[in-house]
Model the fold of this input.
Amino acid sequence: MKVKVFDEECEKDLENNINEFLLNDVDIIDIKYQIAIGISGEEQIYCFSAMIIYH
Done:
């Protein structure tokens, strides 16, 4: 069993990277998805991440 972790500032970038990874012939066990939001002054910082557990 292995894991692959993705972390992006943009949801679309995360989607593209995961789709590219899934082009490989892997046996997916589970996908965990998470969003984190932080505030720095008046700026909002987003973090979109996913962990794929596979064989």
